[in-house]
Amino acid sequence: MSRIETSIHLREVTADGRPFEQPYRAWVEDRNHNGRLFDDPLEREDGTVFSVEEVQLYRLMYLAAGGAPSHDSFELWLRNDGSDKLARMADIFADHPDTYKAIGADERAPIPDAELLEYILFDFAGLDADTPLYEQWLNRLEAGTHGQGDAVLGIVESNAFIAATLDEVAKLEFSSFIARFNDANDDGLLYDAEIEVGDGPVHSAEAAQLYRLYLGALGRIPEAEGFFWWLDKLESGEVSRVDVAEGFLGSSEMIRLMGVDQSVSVENGELLDHLYYNILDRAPDGAGRDWWMQQLESGEKKQAEVIDAFAQSNEFAMTTLHIVGDYHFIDGDYHFIDVIQL
Predict the structure, then answer these.
(1) Is residue 174 part of a domain?
(2) Residue 229 sits in the same domain as residue 253
(3) Selected residue with higher pLDDT from 165 and 329
(4) How many domains does the chain have?
(5) What's the CA gap between 143 and 46, in Å, rounded?
(6) Residues whose CB falls within 8 Å of the CB of residue 100, separated by 6 or more in sequence, listed in order
(7) What is the mean pLDDT of residues 190-198?
(8) Rounded distance, CA 284 to CA 207, Å?
(9) Where residue 264 sits, what CATH number does that domain have?
(10) How confident is the model at residue 332, as a pLDDT?
């Protein structure tokens, strides 16, 4: 297979503001003549070219999201410079609760290999039952030479999957899911509100609060294992959000992110500058910074309390609503991601 092509319709707007759909041809061509299409860019006749990295990531996220991914999550993963990020995402997909839900599998046990393959190849991609990919990957999984994440990535990179999903992937559109706060207290404060996503998931206030702490303190989306470890302790009352912030403040990761000397304590002024620029994404206003400095210097507030206050502020909650609502995680060895300036 040296080239696959499709026709797509993209939503555009005329000069006078009227929407219309413009047809374009789109294709992927085996430019390096290796018989594979996963390492080739996607081109459209309007002159748009999506890089190899963009289309590889989009295909995998298209599967993981069960359709068009959100733009915020796509940008987060695209800007992650980890060389193995696709493999890590494939591993996450095989264990993710949404995958269990889509397949209808029992969450108390690993997804059976055959059910995972059937979902990806037949239910999602719509491939014929006689596709050689099924037996090929089932044999590898049963022999133990490959894991389920390997199978996910291998299938997504196959010519058959690329051809089957080209019509939708070629549009490289993003979901317009609606995330909203459910401020049941009706007090105008968003930190204690659930987050509802469309007609589907509802993320608890505690989960949203913890997710914001990761975004604000560490500048990245959470890794699944650490996030759910902290969430269990938060929901049980074993720890508070300030305890979590204290743990982040003392971590080498946050110290490196702030660019301060690990051998000394973080100065109050250094912390406030970090919070303003990295959480609120703006220069501090004089009066506000002076007030927080007075709170810290007088001992009225601990540094961890200030971190939590910034992370749970209405300003930050609104900025990160769609990122928190999208509820994605990273696993394994990760790299720092600037999540605010999208």
Answers:
(1) no
(2) yes
(3) 165
(4) 2
(5) 46
(6) 106, 107, 111
(7) 88
(8) 28
(9) 1.10.3130
(10) 47
Give the DSSP letter string of 36-75. Answer: -STTS-EEETTS-EE-HHHHHHHHHHHHHHTSSPPHHHHH
Q: What is the pLDDT of residues 237-256, one digit of tens each?
A: 999 999 999 999 888 888 88
Structural domain for 183, as ranges? 179-326
Residue 281 sits in the same domain as residue 205: yes
Q: Do 183 and 87 share a structural domain?
A: no
Residue 48 shares a structural domain with residue 18: yes
Say whether pLDDT at 280 is over 90.
Answer: no
- Residue 257 domain flag: yes
Q: Between residues 328 and 169, which one has the greater pLDDT? A: 169
Sign of the alpha-carbon torsion through 94, 91, 325, 230:
positive
The whole-angstrom separation of Cα 60 and Cα 96 is: 14
- Cβ atoms within 10 A of the Cβ of 311, count? 26
Q: What do you get for the CA distance between the two ends of the chain, in Å?
A: 37
In a shared domain, residues 64 and 122: yes
DSSP string, 232-275: HHHHHTSS-HHHHHHHHHTSHHHHHHHT--TTSPPPHHHHHHHI
Mean pLDDT of 250-278: 82
